[in-house]
């Protein structure tokens, strides 16, 4: 039986400084997401977009956390709470939730929803660690904080909508890390998470690194969440992102990574949920980055050349 994939759009840009990621879901759909998924052998069902008020209608400073700075935190809470419900409903209907961002703070909602009924591991494909708390963040942008939120670090400990008790640091692996803030480095060193940097990919090759990341994410969990931030790729390959960092993953490496995920899913049924985030069509060139996002989602479900 073909697996149903429920496409859930979360056009949210509250978490990032550069406006435009709210157009990500449209651009990824336009790039042929549904067709690509069908060809990969799953049944895509489009569940539409969450309705999200524009940032201009909102005041970034309302209700700051008790410590530190987190812009639009109230709005992020509202969206992530609704998103978590949508993800949970998809899983109850035996569909696989595929969330289209939006900035990376949507992962708070996806992972919340996906872990309400299961112990969840995660592989975080990203240039960034996204482990800042409102206390440590240099920018106050929540898209640099989703993992800290999920793990209940810093002031997030007080925010029940954010932390996901069934996600443990020891079941999270980064792949492709290359930009970490000063204070984030300390948080990462003190945590049980596993980090594979670009240097590890250089040394060992993508496939073997992703195999290890999947071992981390499947160990003692019921399923794996894949979080794919398009700035994981090199900006020359994926220019449509708000926080580009040179020295990223190539087109071939990216496909190899997601194909490795797909092979493991075929044998062991490991996948539970996924988000594809940070596509910014305003900064993109000819919808290249959105096209890549759609292709990589298809690779995750087994798109094959032959
Ligand atoms: N999901 C992302 N693109 N995150 C970028 C985070 C950049 C920086 N570390 C910050 O906290 O502001
Ligand atoms: Mn990033
Ligand atoms: Mn990110």
From TrEMBL:
* Transmembrane spans: none
Checking CDD domains in the record gives: Arginase (cd09989)
Q: GO CC terms on record? A: cytoplasm
What does the cofactor section's free text say about binding? Binds 2 manganese ions per subunit.
Name the EC number(s): 3.5.3.1
MF terms (GO), sorted A to Z: arginase activity; manganese ion binding
Query: Record keywords: Zinc included?
Result: no
Q: Which Pfam families match?
A: Arginase
The UniProt annotation puts the region (Disordered) at 42-66
Q: Which cofactor does it need?
A: Mn(2+)
Enzyme class, spelled out: hydrolase
- Residues that bind Mn(2+) 1, according to the entry? 104, 128, 130, 229, 231
What keywords are annotated for this sequence in UniProt?
Arginine metabolism, Hydrolase, Manganese, Metal-binding
Q: Which GO terms describe its biological process?
A: arginine metabolic process; urea cycle
Listed under catalytic activity are: L-arginine + H2O = urea + L-ornithine
Q: In which pathway does it act?
A: Nitrogen metabolism; urea cycle; L-ornithine and urea from L-arginine: step 1/1
So where does Mn(2+) 2 get bound? Answer: 126
Its family remark reads: Belongs to the arginase family.
Identification of the protein by name: Arginase
> Which species?
Natronorubrum thiooxidans
